[in-house]
Amino acid sequence: MTAPGQMTTPGAPAVPGLPTVPGVGRPARLTPRWGLSAHARRLLTFGLAGLAIAIITRRAEFAGAAAPALLLLAAWRRRRPGHIIATVRASSGRIFESEHLTVTVTVSGQGSYGVELVPHPHESIEVDPGPLPAEPMPDGTARAKLRLTVSRWGRRPAGMCEIILRDQWRLDEGRVMLALPRVDCYPRPATQQTRVLLNRLPNRLGEHPARTTGEGLEFGGVREYVPGDRQRRINWPATTRRGGRLQVNTFAAERSQDVLLLVDASSDAGEPGSSSIDLALRGAVAAARAYLRSSDRVGFITYQWGVRWLTPGHGGRHFLKIAEAMLAGPPSRSRETRLDRLPRSAFPPGALVLVFSPLLDQRFVETLRDLREKGHLLLVIDVLNGEPAIGRSSIGRISRRYWRMEQEAIRFSLNELGIGVVHWDGRQTLDLPLAPYTRRPLASRPRARI
Amino acid sequence: MASLSQGSASQSSASQSSASQSKTSQASRGRASRGRQLAAAGLLGAACCAWAAYPLAGPLRTVLLVLAALFVLADMVRLVTSGLPLDQVDVFSSLGLRVAQSAHTVIDEVPSAEAAAVAVLILEATHSSRAWHTAVLGAALLCYLLATHLAESGAAVRALRPQLPVLAAGLGLLILGAAAALVPAAAPGLGSGLLRVLAAVAAITVAALALPL
Q: Taking residues A134-141, what's their average pLDDT?
């Protein structure tokens, strides 16, 4: 899988010829390139033109007209700083889509010169505000805060920032480019509150009530007292009804389950920002968060021309690992390319496999069939929300119809195999398409109908 | 804890609303100030053109006036469109947007304010000698360039305060130059006129060097 930030040329439209120094984190010593400002150039042109016309036309009044502009330039004292020290600090290096990131640029050593920042952000990053003057601080430094909004997930540099130094009369200008920090932007999680549960859960402590009795909180039934039972569990009304024989309450055991999030990145269809990979990753992030909150173990597998996996784990740290895995580059071709050859730790049997895919890659569909026939419980979230752009001619209409029938056939065949397929448009919550599967626990190994 | 958080939430929402109101009023004030600066620059440019063209006679002056007016207009367009996000226009944008972006690029690269000033000076030079008229034009052109600079940089008028003594001295030199132009030439001919100009330039230079700046 390739992050959007990696698909395009990273970096920003740096002004050619200007010195560029990365200044992220620690102070960077920058040497500006100096020159006349546009205002000074205008005054100089006006003055020289007046003098030239005065000499050509032999009229002294033009020399007088040029005098104020030339005097302004002559009286100007330049005290250019040889270099400045710039420091860039970001409020965070990790954000989710549409979140804000504050980047503080501190410039020192500028002397009496004013500092203005002109950000040149990466194409999927917006900066608010645009050019802004840096505020002079009591310690002699100048500081400005840029508010970055990242519109699409990916790992990319935020761009460049041009520092412009101007003297008090705004006749002298020094310019230097500064690199803004790299931003890791994770996919924005969709909304998911409910969870799909299996009816057979592994014997591991968790939060889901299982069929077996145990030490959970959910009432399971009553049974006759045996020595060793705790007295506080005696159900006195049931004991009275059953002729004085002591009855105790039993409770459902609480177990956790293994959930595998399988993201199909082999094909990407749709508009950038709401393409199938965007939706798949947003759905996967939402599912990871929902299942990790209920103490389940969540694994993450990316299917492209190779397979990249993250073994199931739990906890907040594992959520960050999953998010990091989403931003990782495409797997190398030498890695494992078949899902059924993954190690048992990466693909534990009896796990719930949530597949986020547009179902456009026939190899992937075949892989799903293989997995199902081997007894894995799969639930496909279809993230395809577009159609190929075919013309309105009769051949185009027939082609589109054929394409739709083919897609319907793929989904029908998966359903026939016992693989649930639900469609998600990326706008509604994930709870809605998953509602038929969250009402009751799913049979972990249903029999295939073929 | 819940009530505390609710209280802080209400306080923060109130402070946020007041902050947004003050930000809105600041933005409206900024827009009004920028509008005034743009209007001042435009009016000064138009006044310079009209002042230099008067009296309008002959095709050469008409052509020069049109050129000067076009450059002033281009400079105004450049100033007005400098804040618009035309950089985001790409090949998939509409034809109108792409044309606007190309025009903006051309206008941005042409030094229109300088060209307007030079055109106005040439237009003035087509008239016969009128020293005080030219002096007033010189002062107006300087004001036009300063107004353009303020509109371009967004700085307030008070940013020119440190330059006020120099500007006042410059106006003095301008008057000196105009007065020098009124001194009659010693004799007719090319050399005499040139000498007169050089004498005026020398006088202006000496006066500038004598200034305590």
A: 82
- Nearest by CB to residue B135, choosing from A49, A56, A65, is A65
| B113 contacts in chain A (CB < 8 Å) | 42
Tell me the residues of chain A between 136 and 195 that have a Cβ less than 8 Å away from chain B.
Answer: 168-170
Residues of B in contact with A114 (CB under 8 A): none
Q: So what's the pLDDT on residue A130? A: 66
β-strand pairing of A159-166 with A172-179: antiparallel
B30 neighbourhood in chain A, CB within 8 Å: none
Give the domain extent around B141: 28-155
Mutate to test the interface with B, among A36, A41, A51, A58 (most CBs of B within 10 A): A58
Superfamily name and number for A17-32+82-186: Immunoglobulins (2.60.40.10)
- Interface ipTM > 0.90: no
Q: Greater confidence, B53 or B195?
A: B53
Does the residue B206 lie in any domain?
yes
In the chain, the amino acid numbered A304 is Q
A57 to B125: CB separation less than 8 angstroms, yes or no: yes
Spans of all domains in chain A: 17-32+82-186, 38-73, 212-255, 258-438
Residues B92-140: tens digit of each pLDDT: 677 888 888 888 888 888 899 999 999 999 999 999 888 899 999 999 9
Domains identified in chain B, total number: 2
| Residue B208 placed within a domain | yes
Look over chain A and give the mean of its residue pLDDT values, rounded to a whole number.
85
Residues 83-102 of B with CB under 8 A from A: 83
In sequence order, what are the beta bridge partners of A313?
A298
Residues of B in contact with A51 (CB under 8 A): 201
pLDDT per residue as tens digits for the range A225-248: 999 988 889 999 999 998 889 999
Which domain-ending residue is among B155, B174, B202?
Answer: B155
